[in-house]
Amino acid sequence: GAVVSQHPSWVICKSGTSVKIECRSLDFQATTMFWYRQFPKQSLMLMATSNEGSKATYEQGVEKDKFLINHASLTLSTLTVTSAHPEDSSFYICSARDLGKTQYFGPGTRLLVL
Amino acid sequence: AQKITQTQPGMFVQEKEAVTLDCTYDTSDPSYGLFWYKQPSSGEMIFLIYQGSYDQQNATEGRYSLNFQKARKSANLVISASQLGDSAMYFCAMREAIGSGGSNYKLTFGKGTLLTVNP
Questions:
Q1: Closest CA of chain B from A108, distance in Å
Q2: Measured distance CA(B28)–CA(A88) in Å, rounded
Q3: Which end of chain B has fewer surrounding CB within 10 Å, N or C?
Q4: Which residues of A touch B98 (CB under 8 A)?
């Protein structure tokens, strides 16, 4: 089946630094990619939807200047958490949709901001 | 308003028995899809089963079956012959079209049910 990878799987950073998370579709072209955030013992919350070559659409309450999303190619999307703070510590999961309607999830990235 | 409701924060089941995880949904769109995902402690989201709103028969995938009752807007997951490895969080999700044109979709997740299988 289709595979979506995320890198890094774990990241620990100091408060105020920026962190970039990569999401790649390994064997299919992803016209749309989604970024989710999951706090401990909670559900996945959609942060933004990005279509290749266009600006991301952010969900209500998500700061687009803080969570920069770039979807430069059909196989790569990046999420940059700018000036990260401890409250940004979370599990970030990307998902990629192929030309049909099937959505595949990456393994997630755990971010800890000290 | 919550679109996906999972009323069971936690469920326990004995190994080899069947268990039903509840999910109700709310949408006015006639075309939608319902998914169940398993999330073990590692965090990965594992796709289990899918039911389309126009599907006439309930979906089945191995030990997983989806009890789809459209009029009641429910899509319960039934796991038969539970195994210890089934212990995990289970999320119900609904795919809906967003915007016009019908080409963009998003998944909305319920709060999840933590299933524990006892030996």
A1: 6
A2: 34
A3: N
A4: 49
The rounded distance, in Å, linking the Cα atoms of B33 and A68 is 29
- pLDDT bucket at B105, cuts 50 / 70 / 90: confident
Q: What is the structure's pLDDT at B35?
A: 95
Q: What's chain B's average pLDDT?
A: 93
**What percent of chain A lies above the pLDDT cut of 70?**
97
With CB atoms and an 8 Å threshold, state whether B42 touches A107. yes
Q: Residue B102 above 60 pLDDT?
A: no
Cα distance from A13 to chain B (closest Cα, Å)?
20
CA distance A36 to A25: 16
Long-range contacts of B5-10 (CB under 8 A, 24+ apart): B5/B110, B6/B91, B6/B92, B6/B110, B6/B111, B6/B112, B6/B113, B8/B113, B9/B111, B9/B112, B9/B113, B9/B114, B10/B113, B10/B114, B10/B115, B10/B116
φ, ψ at A90 (rounded to 5°): -170, 180
Is the pLDDT assigned to residue A99 strictly greater than 90? no
Q: Is B43 on the interface with A (CB under 8 A)?
A: yes
